[in-house]
Please model this.
Amino acid sequence: MDLKKIVWILAVVFVISPIAKSENVEEKQPNIIYILSDDLGHADVGFTEGKLKTPNLDRLANEGVQLTQHYVLPVCSPSRGALMSGRYPIHTGMQHGIIHPGEPWGLPTDEVIIPQIMKEYNYSTHAIGKWHLGMHKWSFTPLYRGFDDFFGYYMGSQNYETHIRGDGYDLRNDYWDKDGQFVDDVRYDLQGVYNTELFTQHMLDIIAKKKSEESPFFVYLAYQNVHTPHMVPQRYIDKYSAHVKDADMQIFAGMVGAMDEGVGNITSALEAAGLSDNTIIVFSSDNGAHVGECVKHTTGSNYPYRGGKRSIYEGGVRMPTFVWAKGRLSPAKSNALVHVTDWLPTFWHLASLNRKLKPNNPIKTKALDGVNQWNVLKQVKESARVELLLNIDPFPLGCAHPLPNWGVRWRDWKLILGSGGPPDGWYPAPSLTSREERQCHNQVEGYVELYNIALDPYEHRNVSHQYPHIVEILTHKLMQYNATAVPPGNVKHDPASDPKLHNNTWMPWLEEWEDVRKELKGNMWEWEEYNWVQVENDELPDPCYNQTQRKRDFNYPI
Model:
């Protein structure tokens, strides 16, 4: 054969083969695992150059796409509701705070959520860990929302080993039996076992079963780590005792380490089962680390970002996030704007093979706020969105914003109306030597803060006075969002939820036909909704933005 022809054939083989492999991968429905940590701050993992070592998370982050501008909500129930529904909390009634124990409300059951969509494309669906989206009726619990099974707890937190929250036990394995009957198996036998290890083991059991199955799977793995109460088996503490002297920080580091170990075990199991090449892992946190005035001893850290859990400053809503997908995504760091609502349309795109596959039944969601980010993750597209709503909470929140807080991100600009926090300072991890706090006096009832996040990501310089036209544009956007908002769904605690009435166990206490009592809905608020946002911006100065600081500011390009 002619030498030139041989060279040409070899060139075609070497150039085309990787592409063909990639195309084959893209034509197969991927397994998807969404791992959500709880109250994990920006500086609590290694891949963001944090102080703690997280070798397994770091490996996946470095092999995947790191999202440096991934936004969530300032507290957990709103973030989880936004993730599952693909809709901003203002559109689901989950914009104000969390679901406290015994409160009869949750993510509305007329919202179509991720597992319901995945099942229409023949995925098996599994939920592990924290739910916190409602449990006063069975219809609000995971299996009635599209999951095939659930192993975890309904509440927002628990003792990691006794599995008790308040006066009630809360650890269960829910599933449909062979006759299609719902089974709620409360696992009293697992008292004394650290829940992080239980959740990891349950994930490993799922992987072992899926090894021989052809159908794809979706797993929502919601660890409690590193939410309070801070506790971890001694063996994890021992790993840090030599170089971390603070006792509270040793426990916290151990909690992060336990979760990191779990992620490593899951990755190893996927590889051993031959599933890793067709599995996508997304890792993120529901909100920032718990710092500030409401924390007795700060251990988590969002540094150098400002604020933390309960605030809409970057430290509260900008989370360490990555996507790992061997054979599908090349290692990269993406600065694209991504919101937690984007995962529903992104997973929908993947499950349907870019809508090439038809669902078993028509899927009718309400108008989605999320957008498909897959082409952004593949680095085919620079950005899929130019703005996102941080939140609109019309009421003050305990141990957080004393005023309503409204926030929006548009291109490089971020506007906060009302109160962005507390926490509103900058809180380094305990191992650092300095701490900068924001001390304000003579606060007024309402103010305006504008930041250029590209130039000032740590929100040191409020430039609202220098760019009133940007304030006006973003205020108008917030008004447009607010015009579409539904009222917050919060209702008061129902005494009928008392676990003592249900064998000292947290159980749904209302029948499907029962309405929430009127007295729990009415007269809930001890304050009135503020109308200050209608006032001219010039009448709402930032109390921390004085003449001295203003002189230090410089001109920002639009």
